[in-house]
Amino acid sequence: MSNKIALVTGGNKGIGLEICRQLGQQGYTVLVGxxxxxxxxxxxxxxxEEGIKAQFLQIDMTDSSTFAPAAxxxxxxxxxxxxxxxxxxxxxxxxxxxxxxxxxxxxxxFEINYFGQxxxxxxxxxxxxxxxxxxxxxHSSILGSIGIRHMPEHSWIKNIKSVAYNSSKAALxxxxxxxxxxxxxxxxxxNAAHPGSVKTDMNPAGDLDIPTGAKTAVTLATLPDDGPTxxxxxxxxxxxx
Length: 241
Description:
The protein has 241 residues and is α/β, with parallel strands linked by helices. It is 41% helix and 16% strand. It has helices spanning 14-25, 37-49, 67-77, 103-129, 146-149, 163-182, 210-221, and strands at residues 5-9, 29-34, 54-58, 83-86, 134-139, 188-193, 231-234, 237-238. The protein has an eight-stranded mixed beta sheet, with helices on both faces.
């Protein structure tokens, strides 16, 4: 297991850091993707103090020029990538709705939560194909589920009007399906994860702790050969798109 390599974007804090920790505890060398080198290196130091093999890798989801160098670094130093967790994301319109959200906020949200995820993944697919069992996890949200939004038992979701964030996650879900189909003839599994309502900087009112919030992504990043692909999950349970 010690030769397995995982990249987690937004890995320097919160759920991302915990995903790094849990993967490292399973023997993976974790690449902590972060835009800020100081914060990234601090996260690496913390993980190393816990006995986890970790390295900082500069990835800025607002700057696609960082993607090719990141892929080249992985190719040169490891030759393959076993797990990619697209965790980095933003929510900029929690206090807005479809009638008043600034278009700049919509564009910036999609740039990080959707466009950047696709472009980075495209750079890394060749490395994932070199793995014996590549895994891609897109960190989504139940807020991106159009199906759940129409279920009476989940009427609470209509109180969350953040159209930029919600739509970006719905788009990420669609990307997940297309990517799984694209890679179905390879030994690569692609799934979307809903972490739950986790208490983080982005969601201080969350009701789950961070280790629980990381669990779904870690499970999907370490799926066995007979595990699912092209699905949307929370703690082992499938969610509707």
